[in-house]
Specification:
heterodimer, A: MetI-like fold, 2 domains, globular, B: mainly alpha, MetI-like fold
């Protein structure tokens, strides 16, 4: 015990001098922290507070209703579908973007002709907004215009591929567009990471007779951990933005089959003047992000803190 | 790479073909979009005109004449450039402080900032709209759009800059201190030239995000500061209508960023590599 306590104790002793030593650089970081704190946290608290009231339009005579809004929210089918869709989309988008991005990166890493050109082409969708991506894929997945029609004209008359009009699989139609947009960037990021890995590691694994795929999984991927973290952060912020994609592709249809939470909130707040419910929904989104994010973040960053 | 020696010629050809097939697959939707933008609205919905049709500039002419494309484009350019510059101006000192003078809270602060990026924008949207419209009076101004774009991109910018700056040996910065250079001098004279690749690729990424942002800009603007995202939003019609016009608007909206990307992608890839190398 005494040994383990020694570390933090000396740290504490040094602290006052440290606090002033880097004063200039600490001041440099203040604006950012302050702005984020005031605007984001301020507005969030405001939202949470109003989720317990029966506000319809602002400024409104607020009436405290406790958990009423939450009860109504969880009783509503539309909300449940939204949650389910986001969960499916989030999980699939994360795993598939990483897998596809990694496979493509491994493919390009092996000295392909015109690598630069191919890389640029695959990266391009990332420069397109979700709105434009959604529109382009809406046309491709359209049964009369797009893929289904083209395949049928080749002679396969019974071919059917119409995900956007099928309530069961509509979220996967949206997923295709999302992955098309994002995996190119993941590829470039991971390719950059792979290029940073020492050639000697490849030589050593070849000498040992380890097959290439095993080297990738057990040696290369663990070494690329920081790159993966950046990739996951960028994919995750894309998952939050799926709203644009849904609106452009299906507007939440057919029926309410492809609703997502962000769309639900916007609809309640801006179109059906039901602020309390909208605030309750956004508070739930906030809560679920925290529940998933905080344990992960502490596992990821907590371990390295003393390193 | 080293494995090349091991692989056969046959394997290399297969991989090249495979890579090209994937490339074409990725390229096709963009190609389709551009192709459709040269069709009339009537032709665009006819499958028999998929590849063979009489090209027309009607959609583009219509867009510039009736929809004031250039005003939206100017707004997009102004807001994206200023937001990127502002974000970097705040982000560089912040990442500098975190990378070179880490305290025990640095990782926590960084994580906390990143976590705000994950939080749903919907939770802040209404209060922001309400505040800016009724109290601050900055609704639908360039100023507001720039501030909002900067704020949503700051966490990722700081995160990326931090990973680049971490790679720079501390000794170089310390040496500057010995020579009596102050903090601003260190950032300007030493840090920025050294991390130029990383900063440039971060800036490009930030610019792309600003340009494409729709969730906020569509709702916080009406006419004065409306960006290209708003123009697309305004031209959206129920399924099957005005495909030609809509794809022309979309193509014109992403056009500038695609051209910019063509010139900068090498920089972007190099910058990313720079950050990834340990």
């Amino acid at each position: 015990m005494a040994v383990t306590d020694a570390g933090p104790a000396t740290e504490v002793a040094k602290r006052p001098s440290r606090l002033f030593k880097n004063l200039a650089s600490k001041i440099a970081a203040v604006p950012m922290v302050l702005v984020a704190l005031v605007i984001f946290v301020g507005c969030t608290i405001w939202t949470i507070y109003h989720s317990f009231t029966r506000s319809r339009l602002l400024p409104a005579p607020e009436k405290w209703v406790g958990l009423d809004n939450y009860e109504r929210l969880w009783g509503e089918n539309r909300w449940l579908i939204s949650i389910e869709n986001l969960a499916i989309y989030g999980f699939c988008s994360l795993t598939l973007s990483l897998t596809i991005g990694f496979v493509l990166a491994a493919l390009l890493d092996r000295k392909i002709r015109f690598e630069n050109t191919i890389r640029t082409i695959i990266l391009y969708p990332f420069a397109l907004s979700f709105v434009v991506t959604g529109l382009a894929w809406q046309w491709i997945l359209n049964p009369q215009l797009g893929l289904q029609n083209v395949v049928r004209s080749w002679g396969w008359e019974s071919f059917a591929f119409d995900p956007l009009n099928n309530a069961e699989i509509v979220i996967f139609g949206i997923l295709i567009a999302g992955i098309w947009q994002g995996s190119g960037f993941v590829m470039v990021l991971l390719l950059a990471g792979m290029r940073g890995i020492d050639e000697d590691i490849w030589k050593a694994s070849r000498v040992e007779g380890i097959p290439a795929w095993k080297t990738y999984i057990f040696i290369v991927i663990p070494m690329m951990r920081p790159v993966f973290v950046t990739a996951i952060v960028i994919i995750a912020s894309g998952i939050i933005k799926v709203y644009d994609l849904v609106v452009a592709q299906t507007s939440g249809g057919p029926g309410i089959a492809s609703e997502v939470p962000a769309k639900y909130v916007i609809e309640k707040m801006f179109f059906s003047q039901n602020l309390g419910l909208g605030f309750a929904a956004s508070t739930m989104m906030l809560l679920s992000v925290l529940v998933v994010l905080i344990p992960w973040a502490y596992l990821e960053f907590g371990g390295k803190k003393n390193g | 790479m080293a494995i090349v020696a091991q692989s056969t010629r046959y394997g290399k050809v297969t991989r090249t073909i495979l890579a090209w097939a994937v490339g074409l697959l990725f390229f096709f939707p963009i190609f389709w979009l551009v192709l459709t933008s040269f069709k009339t609205d009537a032709d665009a919905v006819k499958p028999e005109f998929l590849f063979f049709f009489t090209p027309t500039l009607e959609n583009y002419l219509n867009m510039t004449e009736n929809y004031d494309y250039w005003r939206f484009a100017t707004n997009s350019i102004i807001t994206s450039i200023f937001a990127t510059v502002f974000t970097l101006a705040v982000g560089i000192p912040c990442a500098y402080a975190m990378a070179f003078n880490p305290s025990r809270a640095t990782k926590d602060v960084l994580m906390w900032m990143l976590s705000t990026k994950m939080l749903p924008a919907a939770a802040v949207l209404y209060p922001m709209t309400f505040l800016t419209k009724n109290f601050l009076g900055i609704y639908d101004t360039h100023f507001l759009v720039i501030i909002v774009l900067s704020l949503i991109n700051l966490p990722i910018v700081v995160w990326m800059l931090f990973t680049y700056f971490k790679e720079i040996p501390k000794d170089i910065i310390e040496a500057g201190k010995m020579d009596g250079v102050n903090t601003w001098g260190e950032i300007r004279e030493i840090l920025i030239p050294l991390a130029w690749g990383g900063i440039a690729s971060t800036a490009l990424l930030c610019f792309i995000f600003c340009w494409n942002e729709a969730y906020w800009t569509v709702r916080l603007t009406t006419t004065e500061a409306a960006t290209l995202s708003k123009l697309i939003e305004g031209n959206r019609a129920p399924e099957g209508l005005f495909f030609g016009r809509l794809s022309a608007v979309s193509a014109a909206a992403v056009g500038p960023i695609v051209v910019l990307g063509w010139f900068c992608q090498k920089q972007l890839v190099q910058g990313l590599t720079f950050g990834a190398v340990k």
